[in-house]
Amino acid sequence: MVQLMEHLLQLPLSGSQIKKGLAGGLSSRFSGLGPLIIGPVAKSLIASMGVYSTFKVLGIILLIVICTSSLVMEKAPVAAPAAGASQPEGKTYKRNAS
Fold first, then answer.
1. Nearest in space to 42 (alpha carbons), one of 50, 27, 87
2. Is the pLDDT of residue 86 over 90?
3. How confident is the model at residue 82 (pLDDT cuts 50, 70, 90)?
4. What is the pLDDT at residue 72?
5. Residue 33 banded pLDDT, cuts 50, 70, 90
6. How far apart are CA 69 and CA 1, in angstroms?
7. For residues 80 and 25, what is the distance between their CA atoms, to the nearest angstrom?
8. What is the C-alpha separation between 69 and 73, in angstroms, rounded?
9. Do 73 and 12 contact (CB within 8 A), yes or no?
């Protein structure tokens, strides 16, 4: 488990460096960990605090985790146009022919 975490921490976070397949595989592999972690935590919080207080606590915790995670993300680089392709000029939306 420690080796896996060390490997994951060494992955580049830039969108241009990480492969799409690897990113999809990792996200699908670890998407099931949330219920495994939150389930027992929620069960013990419900037993000690009640349902409504548990929702508040979990909401605050998840808000902090999501906001902190968003600080680490980088915007993907703009893709260069294909060779021979021209950039559209002026209005780029289509008009209905009526």
1. 50
2. no
3. low
4. 81
5. confident
6. 22
7. 26
8. 7
9. no
pTM above 0.85, yes or no: no
Q: How far apart are CA 38 and CA 54, in angstroms?
A: 11
Asked if 75 contacts 83 with a C-beta cutoff of 8 angstroms, the reply is no
- Number of C-beta neighbours around residue 36 at 10 A: 8
Are the C-beta atoms of residues 28 and 88 closer than 8 Å to each other? no
Rounded distance between C-alpha atoms, residue 59 and residue 90, angstroms: 45
| CB contact at 8 A, 74 and 15 | yes
Q: How far apart are the first and last CA of the chain?
A: 63
**Can you state the percent helix, strand and coil of the chain, rounding each to 5?**
60, 0, 40
87 to 27, 76, 81, 92: CA distances (angstroms): 34, 20, 8, 10
pLDDT in tens, 44-78: 999 999 999 999 999 999 899 889 988 887 776 67
